[in-house]
Amino acid sequence: MAAIEMKNIVKKYGDGFPAVNDVSIDIADGEFVILVGPSGCGKSTLLRMIVGLEDITSGELIIGGTKVNDLAPRERNLAMVFQNYALYPHLSVYENIAFPLRLAKASDEEVDQKVREASKTLELDEHLERKPGNLSGGQRQRVAMGRAIVRDAQAFLFDEPLSNLDAKLRGQMRTEIARLQKRLGITTVYVTHDQTEAMTLGDRVAVLKRGVLQQLATPRELYEQPVNLFVAGFIGSPPMNFLPATVDGTSVEMPFGTVEIPQEKADLVADHAGKTLIAGIRPEYFDDASVLDDAKLSSGSTFRATVEFTEWLGSEAFAYLPFEAPEAVQKQLEQLEKDLDGESLRTQIVVSLDAASTVAAGDEAEIWVDTAHLHIFDPETGDNLTLQKSEETPTQGGKHAEAPAAQ
Ligand SMILES: Nc1ncnc2c1ncn2[C@@H]1O[C@H](COP(=O)(O)OP(=O)(O)OP(=O)(O)O)[C@@H](O)[C@H]1O
Ligand SMILES: [Mg+2]
């Protein structure tokens, strides 16, 4: 097991396009870090550079204190689990797990001991004599992990290992991988484009956009303190709502009306008074005002809006409220949708309503919003102007990170 340090890593393919652009991430020994972002953002490229399948154009890669830029994959002693598991169909599960040990000419005794230990951890004991072709996707996944475990690798690297599985199995495997990683305490880097996977698995999550690291933070921090529009829009489902807004003191004017924000937030955006900004509020910070008690009502602002349609999910309901946006904001939101690989244009907000709400399509409803959770973004740079800077929230290197080396 080992720490992995990436220092200003750049990857330019033949055509000169920087697929990974100046990425620095420190991964502590035993930490579980997720690389997440839309298709083509450079996740697999970065992972392949760590494992040694792809040359590093510039920057340093340090594993367990040793610079490994020029080491062959074999010498790095990392275990990579691919999307297609790459199992040998003609070998039994036992021999598939044993494969790296056989290659290393381990004794039969050592092979047997290690394979049985791995199979016990992975609950594969009853499948050891079967062939991979007869196993379920989840079982094959575990065999692939077994092969990684027996190698005593310094770290596990996963590239979208669950994307071939159906939703239910994906959920189960997600829990299983998280449990195993904790039990084995092995440093793990895991690539996914699925933000739910990223949020539930990782100690920390690195969000990438077009090869550039946007934010590296715990799931909670990404959710509550996104550094920019991209991270805010990428993390969370249903996604954060974005609305045009202008600020005047503690008043924020939005298409549905004017709401009041806390003084600390107002101070952070005071320099931007009068400009058209973008407000961001997650669906759960809205509600149907008619079902709330006075204490909750007075903790936020309310506005009236016409509900276009509703979706009732049992434990909660979502209502869709359309709005008009000025052209400049509209353009910015369209660009954001493209960056996020989305297809819908967000000229509506989605609000989550209490299950007790009876608001229906076509109703004009009084909607409550918790403005303490409102973010305000600069439409030109995308930066979150209301980021709370009190805690340490560096873009690169979170609380697990080692002190950055002097450069
Ligand atoms: N062998 C290659 N030659 C040239 N360009 C490449 C090569 N491999 C990847 N790229 C480019 O590098 C960028 C990053 O690709 P990468 O495969 O790392 O993305 P990704 O984040 O893993 O995407 P996905 O979610 O689709 O797997 C893309 O623009 C891609 O076109
Ligand atoms: Mg990929």
Task: Give an overview of the whole structure.
This protein is α+β, with helices and mostly antiparallel strands and 407 residues long. It has 2 domains: 4-224, P-loop containing nucleotide triphosphate hydrolases (Rossmann fold), CATH 3.40.50.300; 230-377, no CATH class. The chain has 12 helices and 21 strands. The protein has helices spanning 43-51, 73-76, 93-103, 108-121, 137-150, 167-184, 195-201, 219-224, 229-234, 263-269, 294-298, 327-339; strands at residues 4-12, 18-27, 32-36, 58-63, 66-67, 78-81, 155-159, 187-192, 204-209, 212-217, 241-248, 251-254, 257-260, 277-281, 286-288, 301-306, 309-312, 316-322, 348-354, 364-369, 375-377. It has a 6-stranded mixed sheet, with helices on both faces. A hairpin with a 2-residue loop joins strand 11 and strand 12. It is elongated and about 75 Å long. The two termini are 26 Å apart. The relative contact order is 0.13. Residues 392-407 have low confidence and may be disordered.
Helix content: 25-40%
The order of strands across the largest sheet is 6-7-8-3-9-10
Q: Mind telling me the C-alpha Rg?
A: 24 Å
Tally of strands: 21
* Structural class by sheet pairing and helices: alpha+beta
CATH architecture of the largest domain: 3-Layer(aba) Sandwich
List the defining traits of the structure above:
407 residues, alpha+beta, Rossmann fold, 2 domains, 6-stranded mixed β-sheet, 5-stranded antiparallel β-sheet, elongated, disordered C terminus, binds adenosine-5'-triphosphate, binds magnesium ion, Multiple sugar transport system ATP-binding protein
